[in-house]
Amino acid sequence: MKRLRRQLGRLAAIFSAALLLGGCRVAEPPPVRAFSLVIPVYDERGLRETVTTLRPHLRPDDRFMVVSGNTTGVIDTAWLNRAALTLRAAYPDAAIYAATSGLENVAVAAREADPVVEAVVYIYEPNFPNQPEFSWEFDATLERFAEAKAQAGAGGFRTIGKPTGRPLLQENLLEYGWNYGALAAEVGELFVQTQTYCKESPAAFAAALDTLTAQVGSRAALTPWIPQITVDPNAPNGTSLAQATACLREVRQRNLPGAVLVIIF
User: Fold this and answer.
1) Which CATH architecture has domain 38-263?
2) Domain extents in the chain
3) What is the pTM of this model?
4) Sequence-separated (6 or more) residues with CB below 8 Å from residue 64
5) pLDDT tops 50 at residue 255
6) What DSSP state is assigned to residue 239?
7) Mean pLDDT, to the nearest integer, of 205-224?
């Protein structure tokens, strides 16, 4: 119980820090801010904490991403829809997305997601058993994103791409010539997985943001993009509260529209 209280205290602190960086204070009712957050929900515990503990720290322009079938297994649309409806009841005006990896899971989400879901998020990472289509070859990656968009569109959903951010700065991957502006052209929005750079240092995170800004360029007006930060010192790509706050500051300084903020409950 003590550990849980400490963890929830850290969560309150990171949300307070995010709101301060967004230029407003924690208050009820909260004012709308430009610095929005996307909050992933992975399981029942995360869902419960999102609609209770986090509630005073969220804003009307924050969004939610219900994740199922991420690394392995078939997407559980029954749970996903129940979670989405629970979020809708708690946050009537918030955007809610369904996130999964693997084109087969995207197709299932497009067929079975509740209408309360506004978009399907295509998570694109290497070494996921349910994502055999992953490739470092960039032309193949563009094709996969086009396929995901077609599948989500067939169900009436827009598509958000959530690609790995490793090719941004990792020397051994630069040869593949990834261009996130070209990826953005295939979808409606990008959530780029930059959490490994935040874990490395705020300076590395800033360099990743600058590379993304240069690659996406003016297309950001048509296809917005936001980075990801994971708050959990024990996670492989997670980081401490202090470092996450420093990374959020880098986001704010570049006038980006927000960030995906992953909290491991």
Assistant:
1) Alpha-Beta Barrel (3.20)
2) 38-263
3) 0.90
4) 38, 39, 40, 41, 50, 84, 87, 91, 94, 95, 96, 97
5) yes
6) B
7) 95
